Amino acid sequence: MNKTIKFLGMALIGLSVVITSCEKDETIDEPAVDNTVKVSLSTKNNEIVDHWVYYSFETKGEVSGIDSSNFKTSEAWDIAFHSRHIRLNGGTSGMGMAEAYDASVVDWTSVKEATENGYTKDAFADSILYAGNGPTGPIMIGTDLNMVFENAFDFDANTHPPTYLANKNVYVFKTRTGKYAKIMLTDYYNDKGESGYISFKYVLNTEGGRNF
User: Fold this and answer.
1) CA 126, 176, 185 angle in degrees (round to 5)?
2) Which of 86, 116, 117, 210 lies 20 to 30 Å from 191, alpha-carbon distance?
3) CB 171, CB 87: distance < 8 Å
């Protein structure tokens, strides 16, 4: 009888070890969450002089009803695009806190934290937008924009029409409300090969920290 009880006790211990071992083997690490948002704008941005396409990080969408008469006072947008130029809601372009810096050509996943310093605010730039041809050559006008993004697209004027190639730099910036984000411009053309349809990806820290 004692031998039977002893045998059953040893069996239960062995079974417990097997179950525990299986539970450990079945433990799977949770995959890292990818918060990257990928955007392909549906509005063409290069047909009309100084016509910008505005985008909001809060609504994750394009913003209508904004033009040269009200963009500086609107709280509905964070970033805007015209041709190869970009403006942010801050500095001379708006009442927000937006500003940016170029993290250069680095791997997207390697930019894990926004720097505290080194940002550039929007400013008025003279003779920077192409407004057609005149008797003596191209007519250029000024506008408010962020100079940090002026190299986001490599521009070749020797082709007809000119060609634009995203340089795939990572840019870090503050949004209108002061939250940190990183962004990469990925294309100047839509799936049909039509120009002026910007694509980009970004990660926004919605909690207000500097980590991505």
Assistant:
1) 65
2) 86
3) no
User: Are 143 and 125 contacting, i.e. CB atoms less than 8 angstroms apart?
Assistant: yes
Paired strand residues for 102: 171
Distance CA 55, CA 7 (A): 72
Compute the C-alpha angle 87/55/176, nearest 5°.
65
Q: Does 4 map to a domain? A: no
Render the chain in DSSP notation, one character per residue.
-HHHHHHHHHHHHHHHHHHHHHHHHT--PPPPP---EEEE--S--SSSTT--EEEETTTTEEE-S--TTTTTT-SS-SEEEETTEEEESSGGG-SS--EEEE--S--GGG--B--SS--B--EEEEEEEEEEEETTEEEEEEEEE-GGGGGSEEEETTSSS-EEEE----EEEE-TTS-EEEEEEEEEE-TT--EEEEEEEEEE-TTS-SB-
**Residues 56-109 pLDDT 10s:** 999 999 999 999 999 999 999 999 999 999 999 999 999 999 999 999 999 999
Q: What is the tens place of the pLDDT at every residue in 19-53?
A: 444 455 555 655 567 899 999 999 999 989 989 99
The model's confidence at residue 120, banded by pLDDT at 50, 70 and 90, is: very high
Question: Are 102 and 148 contacting, i.e. CB atoms less than 8 angstroms apart?
Answer: yes
18 occurs within a structural domain? no
Number of domains forming the structure of the chain: 1
What Cα–Cα distance (Å) separates residue 122 from each residue in 32, 69, 91, 160?
35, 17, 5, 30
